[in-house]
Amino acid sequence: MKNEIKKKWVRKLRAWRHRKCNGLLAFGEQRCALGILCEVIDPQQRLSKWKRRSMIPVRILRATGLDKTDADQVAKLNDGYASNVSIVRACNFSEIADWIEENIK
Q: Average pLDDT over the chain, rounded to whole?
């Protein structure tokens, strides 16, 4: 992932003051972690079609250099998930930012 974009994304995750949403990139003023990344790339929301999506657009992945596998993991951390072994709770944005800093190169 492009380092400057990663830094902006982490800063924005830590500063976000609205509610977090699950399952969609955006809902009203709420965003999921990947929705916040979309805002980093498209701050004027000129391409606001991404707001009605549940999956991050390929255009955003290309612009950021974010790997699809990493994007999928961020979505799981944001929403929480169940595996055949356990249930993982949804993380808050600060926890997601920590994971991004430690795991996304």
A: 91
Contact, 52 vs 42, CB < 8 A?
no
Q: What's the chain's Rg over C-alpha atoms? A: 13
**What residues have CB less than 8 Å from 67, skipping those under 6 apart?**
1, 61, 104
Distance CA 31, CA 52 (A): 11
Q: Where is 53: in which H helix or E strand?
A: none
CB atoms near residue 100 (< 10 Å): 22
* SS3 call for 31: strand
DSSP 79: H
pLDDT tens digits for range 21-53: 999 998 888 999 999 999 899 887 765 677 778
| Nearest alpha carbon to residue 50 among 58, 72, 29, 68 | 58
